[in-house]
Amino acid sequence: MTLLRTTSLTGILLALCVAFPAIAQQAPAADTLVPIISGPDEIVVGRTLVLDASSSKGLGEDTTYRWFVGGVSQPISRTVEVVYTPERTDTLTMRLHIRTTVEGEVREAEVEKVIIVYQRKIVLIADTTVPTDKVELHRQTAAEEGTYLRVIRPTDTAVRISAEETLATLIGEEDTTLQGAQAIIIWTDGMIGLQALMRASEGNTQLKQSLEGQTLVVITDRGLQTFARTTHAPFTVLSPDRILITRKEAVNPLLSSQSPEEFLTTIEQRDIDLLIVDASSIAIRPWNLLSTLVTSMLTHGVSSQIVILLLTLPLIAMILAFLKQVIGITTFGLYTPSIITLSFLALGWKIGLTFLLFIIFTGYITRMLLKRWRMLYIPRVAIVITVVSITLLLLLGLAAAFSITFGRDTIFVLLIMSTLAESFLTIKTEEGLWSAVLGTGETIVASLVCAWIVSWSTLQSILLAYPEVILFTIVADAALGQWTGLRLVEYFRFREVFKHLQEE
After folding, report:
1. Which of 57, 113, 260, 440 has its CA at 20 to 30 Å from residue 479's CA atom?
2. What is the structure's pLDDT at 15?
């Protein structure tokens, strides 16, 4: 029996080796020599560069080190570290060769590290709204002007509600990149870039010190005066020397300028829009209570996207009230289309509509399949929610395959969207399938109209800069409350009656 078990075990091991040869080939031995170079990836011309190899793995006895610069055959150091001072801008290649003895066996390995040597460095913080080809074009322009343009930009497409979180994480991981920069360009959608900098600097002393006294250049296509009011909180938290708000046409002059003062002179000569925000221009009047509250929220780390969603909710409710009272659109109440509109704003209307249709379709099919079993209402709804959750999980996995990332708060948005599925099923049970489809369609159309209106970038900038504007929605709602005329839809519905009245 023992021989039989041993033979069986040997056969299994042989079968695994045959079935998975790639695993056996790729798995490195635990004592493999792995040379590792520790040190900066970029340095200013004339500064002393120190690289270290003490983190290398698999070292044994009689270890020797040889450091080489570029294609030079003579080593510049034979110790565990190398000290080198580059004298011109270049893409420097440092090569490390290690020779060691492990259990009587001589092992050798080599590794390279590419280091950027620059005279002037400018950091560009961008999101996926800036085309990749445009970023590469500016990188080439900077290289021609002798400027090292360091780009911090996510590679994956993130939904709007998580774009700020994704960018903040990326900035936090590359906090040392901002050190020594002549200027920092922030080119994102709205306030995402400044908010991401604020979130990344929380608890990161090194990053905050790199930003203090720095010149921040914000590229925007919105109104400069309105956008400037939204920079009060970032200016207070980040403590830069100044924030320059300008247009995308100013990027190339900045890359070619030797100093911020030369850049300002060039901007003025070319008549490019520019607004400077400094300590003398961020005062807020004490009677602007909502502005003070919004600035305080942004200062304490509340996302600007969350603030915008809250500020647009009264406006969304006013638009829906107009559509229902004056136009005559039938929706599932006022709360459901308002929440769906916020979901469209957070996720983008294309992704949001796709998720919403899948949620409704899945809920309807599950409800139909459960008809053959006699089941109480509450357990049946629980099963529908379970199936909807699985559907959302599959959709999130499919989105990840297309490099679309979602933040941790996205799941709450998706669960809120599932309320429409419950409303659809309730109307379908009470009034029939056609009424449910019609009500769902009109609810989605009303939500899309609201999302299209409030997603206007200029409107969002106005709301964030002057949040007191939302108080006027109360006046508009009060005016709609006095509406006594027929709805627009009713003129078409009762057009035959109007014809008979006119004939009489």
Report:
1. 440
2. 41
